[in-house]
Specification:
Layout lengths: L9 E5 L4 H12 L3 E6 L2 H13 L4 E5 L5 H14 L6 E4 L14 H28 L3 E6 L12 H20 L5 E8 L13 H9 L9 H12 L10 E4 L8
Parallel strand pairs: 1-2, 1-4, 2-3, 4-5, 5-6, 6-7
Helix pairs in contact: 1-7, 3-4, 4-5
The protein binds NADPH dihydro-nicotinamide-adenine-dinucleotide phosphate.
Length: 253
Amino acid sequence: KNRWSLCGTTALVTGGTKGIGHAIVEELALLEARVHTCSRNETELEKCLEEWRNLKFDVTGSVCDVSSREEREKLMKSVSSIFHGKLNIFINNAGTFITKPVVDCTAEDYSFIMSTNFESAFHLSQLAHPLLKASKRGNVVLISSIAGTVALPGLSIYSASKGAMNQLTKNLACEWANDNIRTNCIAPGGILTPMVQPLMNDEIERKIAASVPLARMGEPEEVASLAAFLCLPAASYITGQIISVDGGFTVLG
Ligand code: NDP
């Protein structure tokens, strides 16, 4: 068996229409996985699916807001029916952020970030479990953030949601090891995606570059390659790990 191929596997990637999720869908498809993805915006989703069809990638999609419990249940039902009850790869990528000092955060801010980032990761993992188990070789990859381990300005709720994902990674890895499901987590640093683009200007980019040993922000593809690697048979002894893709940001003293 080719240890460097995902041929014959099935995958769910949340938030695949933009940024890191989009790059992950393409990376998995290039390695010959069948991929299902979701986002909230139907027009954008259809446009992506059309592009992937033209590239001969095997990708399907549903509209789903991962912050809603009902919509998460509906999504996993679709995935189960498309892939006949078997899922090899679940990539929890969809996520969002707000920046505010703690004293200004409202109850709505808290539920919006926690439901989109953490509750979705927890519940979708629960829902995916029977499918992952049935596939006989399952992989969960949670996309957290370096903000899950270091305190960045204005990101308290976001950081808490990502820190919770980091810990969930370790618990799932232990609870589901017997079902032959590996669980790992990627903690990206600053990656140039539509999420951060509105915050960018030359000065901010220079400041970020100065705090990163590799002296630049990352590209979505540089996160996608690790996500794919973690799901390959080549990574079969790696579970419960949180791996940063941050150009060295978190190790600079
Ligand atoms: P983008 O905003 O560029 O893309 C997010 C994707 O997720 C889009 O496809 C978006 O589509 C979808 N999405 C957002 N909210 C929901 C929702 N509630 N339900 C379903 N789909 C949703 O983000 P990034 O690619 O930058 O981020 C991806 C992940 O990486 C996030 O979890 C983020 O926290 C994490 N990350 C990003 C970093 C960065 O620097 N970019 C750094 C560290 C972590 P739509 O809006 O149409 O729903």
